[in-house]
Design a protein that fits this description.
Strand content: under 5%
Structural class: mainly alpha
Distance between the termini: 31 Å
Largest sheet: none
Number of strands: 0
Helix content: 55-70%
Number of helices: 2
Amino acid sequence: MRGWFLYSLVRQHNRIVNECALEFSARRTKTWQKSWPWIVVTFAGFGIGAIVGDLDDSSTAMLWSFGALSMGLTMLGIYMTVRIVRIHYRCPKCEKVVSTWDGVPVAPKECPHCGVSFR
């Protein structure tokens, strides 16, 4: 009887871990799908900034316009990417953002807050 009880507890724990791993994998995919356009916008902002640096003969108004566009795109891209990560990149068990002092891990093995395995 006792062995069966322990066996059922282990099976239930494994089922919960597997469900959390599948749910986190789906959330990670959703985060990537929603954030990649904003990452492209960020790099476009950097690219425009690099082009602005090469415009020596242009008017001051044009330089300021492209500079403002570059800064705006870069800031918007970074802001939206961080916002998407904070909304979708969460642990299925404790609902906290999966992040450490080093930043946001791309493929974490476990939640740094509650310790549930993602693999």
